[in-house]
Amino acid sequence: MKLRHLIWATAVATALSVAGCSALDAKQRAMIFQPSDRVWQRADMAGMQDVWIDFHSQADQQAVRLHGLWLAQKNPRAPVLLYLHGARWNVTGSTQRMRHMHALGFAVLAIDYRGFGQTQPASLPSEVSAREDALAAWHWLAQQHPQAPRFIFGHSLGGAIAIDLATRVDDEQGLVVEGTFTNIRDMARNFQWGWLPLGPLITQKFDSLDKVAHIGAPLLVVHGSADTLVPPALGQQLYDAAVPPKQWVLVQGGTHHNTNSLGQAQYRAALAAWLAPKNP
What we know:
Elements: H1 3-33, E1 49-57, E2 62-71, E3 80-84, H2 95-103, E4 107-111, H3 127-144, E5 150-155, H4 157-166, E6 174-178, H5 184-188, H6 208-211, E7 219-224, H7 232-241, E8 246-251, H8 259-262, H9 264-275
Parallel strand pairs: 3-4, 3-5, 5-6, 6-7, 7-8
Antiparallel strand pairs: 1-2, 2-4
Helix pairs in contact: 3-4
């Protein structure tokens, strides 16, 4: 084969490989995030304010405008909570969990990642873009409420984003994750085709099991015993890999969707020390 033919063949093979990898990556991002602008029909947004957070994405080199919902407390000194939601629904699907955390004493900011709700651009989200979005929201909270103790909360996929965020900041007072997992590879093993050797093909790793040991703040891991989407064993593994101070709360009968409401009393007991008034 002549050199120019070899170069041409190599270029074609490389292009096909890159195209294949790009398509695989996009498919994974779509399957994991299931981004949507759908409004949760039972959403109760009374008393919630729209929040807009503008920043420049270093990963995509584009302007980003995050949309969020802010649920304030009457007490201006109340602790603030960044709520990071899971897949499929936009932020309106989290309003009930926001209210449950609000009832515990938090002022709550919940955001939509790129690809969800009114956040712009409406691009396909990724592990990297969600990381940027969460960090931008955290900085916004620090600027708007510099004197308030700040906490991070993540549900399901949002738990993985929350754990990643907690490894990148050092001013959080605590981290709560509910119904979350160790990594995408372990989640894949729970599906019908989980026996396939998919590890090398995963581009969106969300490796919380590796990251959780590097969190410097108190950690609360909550899981429902009847969660069939994310098995409680994954939450337990995540807790076991973390370093103290940490707490594990298993809500009996809790599913992936109702653990936050069913476990309110357990939440309140677990968070009592975090939210106790500090002596001046």
